[in-house]
């Protein structure tokens, strides 16, 4: 079932969605396409199917602009072409693109509610092929500033960090043993920034090797550190690792492998810690807040506010 939508040719999509008397509307939860879309809300099924599902006109437009392969765009049978409201421009782009490749499918209001995230329809649901986010595909500029998220379990927090990173001009986010970045809640909380900010996923070991081999200065955000984040230099190629609010980094990311002339030496080098000083009794911040505070200080130091670091 994973290839249900993308494997269809444009002719089959057209035959499925249009007849001489007008558009065909999907109305039954027994329909294979509808069952497939509902199951895409499950993390395991999304991974098995190599698909992702996106809610909202703005987010769908951004997913299209990022180059993802479109499988289908599902819109309400009533008002699908009513271009009004705050997402008018995005809606127009999505509808035009979906029509151009014969991927627009009409669904009843009841089915839209079933296939939407949290049963909260936002006008459109789109299915895409899952993009490859391997480290080997990541292309970074010289002197890049990167955030590393380590073992973040709540997809909403992952999405919120992407939103902050997009605002600050962070060059990339690396996800170390994290939740699926294409979880619908992560996409929604990012406001589509997940499709704009370059990202790659991997284990802590593979990401540590990637950064060490790339000559990055790596710092860990740690509440127990004595070094305020504003007192260090954020120049050059820098990565800062942030852990979960509940557990922090622990013993992880205390060191990274050492490379000399592009080769592993077998030794490890220490990862210095930085902290965000806090005056109150609270001893931790939400990871998206921590990421924003550190990222904007890095932007300030590097002199690239409002553009890519």
UniProtKB/TrEMBL annotation:
Stretches of the chain forming a coiled coil according to its record: none
Transmembrane segments: none
Record's signal peptide: none
GO biological process: methylation; RNA processing
EC code(s) of this entry: 2.1.1.-
Pfam family, one: SpoU_methylase
Domain spans labelled MRM3-like substrate binding: 31-126
Cell membrane keyword on record: no
GO MF terms held by the record: RNA binding; RNA methyltransferase activity
Keywords associated with the record: Methyltransferase, Transferase
SUPFAM superfamilies (alphabetical): alpha/beta knot, L30e-like
Location of the tRNA/rRNA methyltransferase SpoU type domain: 145-295
Protein family: Belongs to the class IV-like SAM-binding methyltransferase superfamily. RNA methyltransferase TrmH family.
Name of the protein in question: Putative TrmH family tRNA/rRNA methyltransferase
Native organism: Rubripirellula tenax
């Amino acid at each position: 079932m994973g290839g249900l939508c993308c494997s269809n040719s444009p002719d089959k999509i057209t035959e499925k969605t249009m007849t001489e008397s007008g558009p065909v509307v999907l109305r039954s939860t027994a329909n294979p396409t509808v069952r497939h879309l509902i199951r895409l809300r499950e993390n395991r099924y999304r991974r098995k199917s190599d698909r992702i599902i996106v809610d909202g006109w703005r987010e769908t437009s951004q997913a299209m602009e990022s180059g993802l392969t479109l499988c289908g765009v599902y819109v309400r049978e009533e008002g699908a072409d009513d271009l009004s409201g705050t997402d008018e421009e995005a809606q127009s782009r999505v509808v035009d693109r979906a029509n151009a490749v014969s991927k627009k499918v009409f669904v009843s209001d009841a089915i839209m509610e079933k296939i939407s995230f949290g049963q909260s329809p936002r006008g459109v649901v789109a299915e895409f092929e899952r993009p490859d986010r391997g480290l080997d595909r990541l292309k970074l500029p010289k002197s890049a500033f990167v955030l590393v998220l380590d073992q973040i379990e709540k997809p909403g927090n992952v999405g919120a960090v992407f939103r902050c990173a997009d605002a600050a001009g962070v060059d990339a986010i690396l996800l170390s043993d994290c939740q699926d970045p294409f979880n619908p809640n992560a996409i929604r909380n990012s406001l589509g920034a997940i499709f704009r900010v370059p990202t790659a996923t991997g284990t802590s070991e593979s990401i540590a090797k990637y950064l060490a081999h790339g000559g990055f200065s790596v710092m860990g955000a740690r509440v127990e550190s004595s070094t305020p984040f504003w007192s260090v230099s954020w120049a050059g190629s820098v990565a800062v690792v942030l852990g979960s609010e509940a557990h922090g980094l622990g013993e992880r990311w205390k060191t990274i492998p050492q490379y000399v002339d592009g080769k592993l030496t077998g030794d490890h080098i220490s990862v210095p810690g930085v902290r965000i000083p806090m005056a109150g009794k609270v001893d931790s911040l939400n990871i998206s807040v921590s990421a924003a505070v550190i990222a904007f200080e890095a932007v300030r130091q590097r002199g690239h506010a409002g553009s890519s670091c």
